Amino acid sequence: MSHPQPPVDRVNHGTLRHADTQVIERHEPKYPGPTDRTHGFEHHDVDSDFSHPHFWHGFNYGHHVGVLRIGFHPFFLLGVPYFYDDGIYYQRADAGYREVYPPLGAVVPDLPDGAIEIQVGALTYYYGGGAFYLRRYDGFIIVAAPMGVTVPDPPPGAALVTVNGSVAYQFNGISFRPIFVNGVTQYVTYRP
């Protein structure tokens, strides 16, 4: 007879996952076999970001698309054309567009959905889609990442690396080191 497992308190679970991860019970034998009567449940961590509602979580550097979604924002930066769509930036490519890193100095009319505020001294930064923005009179400008700030997630598309024996994520020249804050993994910006 199998017994349901109690829910796992994710905030105090002690993994490098976030508090918003879920535990899924699998209703199949733990040790299947014709004479094995021991049944149990296996817990598998499933990152809830898998179906995250923010469009920019689908960022995939170099990914090619044939057409852009309706409502994209075209702009030029140093004479080069870019196209912005809710946190993802594109440039023209063969028969379509390819995803590129958020370009420093780009000005867009709106922040990506889900962007968060980060106060650094007298400045209010906004973080979304792996980019840091400051408000301007004509929208929001992408600026260099402030060092030593904490964000809830590494940028989508960040590469997992080892820096001085520690795990970090790198994205567009910036490293994000995982730390625990009240039992939840957060990420601090730094330059290795």
Question: Any overview of this molecule?
Answer:
By secondary structure, the chain is mostly beta strands. The protein has two domains: 10-51, no CATH class; 55-190, no CATH class. 0% of the residues lie in helices and 44% in strands. The chain has strands at residues 22-25, 43-46, 64-65, 73-77, 80-85, 88-93, 96-100, 107-108, 116-120, 123-128, 131-136, 139-143, 150-151, 159-163, 166-171, 174-181, 184-190. It has a five-stranded antiparallel sheet with strand order 3-7-6-5-4, with no helix packed on it. The model is unreliable at 1-54 (pLDDT under 50).
Q: Radius of gyration in whole Å, from Cα?
A: 21 Å
- Please indicate the percent range of residues in DSSP E strands (runs of 2 or more): 35-45%
Q: SS-based structural class?
A: mainly beta
One letter per element, helices H and strands E, the order comes to: EEEEEEEEEEEEEEEEE
Number of helices: 0
Keywords:
globular, disordered N terminus, five-stranded antiparallel sheet, single chain, 2 domains, 192 residues, mainly beta
Helix and strand topology:
Blueprint: E1 22-25, E2 43-46, E3 64-65, E4 73-77, E5 80-85, E6 88-93, E7 96-100, E8 107-108, E9 116-120, E10 123-128, E11 131-136, E12 139-143, E13 150-151, E14 159-163, E15 166-171, E16 174-181, E17 184-190
Antiparallel strand pairs: 1-2, 3-7, 4-5, 5-6, 6-7, 8-12, 9-10, 10-11, 11-12, 13-17, 14-15, 15-16, 16-17
